[in-house]
């Protein structure tokens, strides 16, 4: 998996990459306040794959968006690779996010008029990287996600699972330290979902990436090292599937914590 690693960007395993301290987020919605996160503290070490579980409205997406620097906390701190996101200017945070954080959403967010390869390449081409170095990098990444054969296909000629793998390749373009995924398999069938979970597992194990994945599915969380369970904006417990892919273990533990 040299493809997604470079010597400079490799964070030693065991080092805390994501550190969240007493995080609170209150939304003001039509005159009433919604406490989306109510004092969340957690840390994730390099190369670890963590799942975030919880009922709808428990604050999972809010937590992921705060870790990705997409929104600002009401209180508390998010540190990524030793950088306090809240202390950065908006511009500095945007640049940091583009370099160090890869984000994957449920809806893939591919541009329909571009091929798979062009979708992966676009951020680098906009950044002024040469076509030659971009082509090499995109080739590596499409190989990593097993889509070399689909490089010239547009999104409408790809299955949902293939489109999500293109989005994962794009998220890895800059060799980020952290990959955030918000219900990446929400639109996929069970076979395609399993491919995405195994791919994320491999990206953590072989690529050394720190992964946080929001999921409703015990079968998905079972691929992670740990599952952090949220309820009403708070962490109510942790499960340790340790990448066992044993969904029943997670399902039972989750019911006890969140049910
Ligand atoms: N932009 C917003 N403005 C107002 N309230 C919001 C906003 N975003 C989220 N909320 C509220 O904050 C709470 C947590 O929302 P969040 O989207 O983080 O939940 P979630 O766990 O991701 O849910 P789901 O599983 O449905 O995606 C919910 O009550 C939601 O309605
Ligand atoms: Mg959500």
Plain-language structure description:
The strands form 2 sheets. The chain has a 6-stranded mixed sheet, with helices on both faces. Strands 2-1-4-5 form a 4-stranded antiparallel sheet. The radius of gyration is 18 Å and the shape is globular. The longest helix has 16 residues, at 190-205. Helix 3 (116-126) runs parallel beside helix 5, helix 4 (131-144) crosses helix 5 (160-171) and helix 5 (160-171) packs parallel to helix 6. Strand 4 and strand 5 (83-84) form a beta hairpin. The chain has 259 residues and is of the alpha/beta class. 34% of the residues lie in helices and 26% in strands. It has a domain at 15-106 and 178-258: P-loop containing nucleotide triphosphate hydrolases (Rossmann fold, 3-Layer(aba) Sandwich), CATH 3.40.50.300. Magnesium ion is lined by residues 60-61.
CATH architectural group of the domain at 15-106 and 178-258: 3-Layer(aba) Sandwich
- Overall spatial form: globular
C-alpha termini separation: 39 Å
Which homologous superfamily in CATH is the superfamily of the domain at 15-106 and 178-258?
P-loop containing nucleotide triphosphate hydrolases
Give average pLDDT, whole number.
94
The parts where pLDDT drops under 50 for at least 5 residues are: 1-8
Task: Say how many strands there are.
Answer: 10
């Amino acid at each position: 998996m040299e493809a997604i690693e470079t010597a400079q960007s490799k964070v030693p395993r065991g080092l805390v990459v994501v550190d969240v301290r007493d995080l609170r987020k209150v939304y003001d919605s039509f005159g009433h306040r919604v406490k989306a996160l109510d004092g969340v503290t957690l840390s994730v070490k390099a190369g670890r794959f963590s799942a975030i579980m919880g009922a709808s409205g428990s604050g999972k997406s809010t937590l992921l968006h705060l870790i990705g620097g997409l929104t600002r906390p009401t209180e508390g701190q998010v540190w990524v690779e030793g950088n306090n996101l809240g202390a950065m200017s908006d511009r500095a945070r945007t640049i940091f996010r583009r370099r160090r954080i890869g984000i994957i959403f449920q809806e893939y967010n591919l541009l329909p008029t571009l091929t798979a390869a062009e979708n992966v390449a676009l951020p680098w081409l906009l950044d002024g990287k040469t076509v030659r170095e971009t082509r090499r990098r995109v080739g590596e990444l499409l190989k990593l996600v097993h889509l070399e054969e689909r490089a010239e296909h547009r999104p409408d000629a790809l299955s949902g699972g293939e489109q999500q793998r293109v989005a994962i390749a794009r998220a890895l373009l800059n060799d980020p330290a952290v990959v955030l995924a918000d219900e990446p398999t929400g639109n996929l069938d069970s076979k395609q979902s399993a491919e995405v979970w195994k791919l994320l597992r491999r990206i953590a194990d072989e690529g050394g990436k720190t992964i946080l994945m929001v999921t409703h599915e015990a079968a998905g969380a079972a691929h992670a090292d740990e599952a952090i369970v949220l309820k009403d904006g708070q962490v109510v417990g942790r499960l340790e599937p340790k990448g066992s892919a044993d969904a029943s273990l997670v399902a039972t533990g989750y019911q006890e914590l969140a049910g």
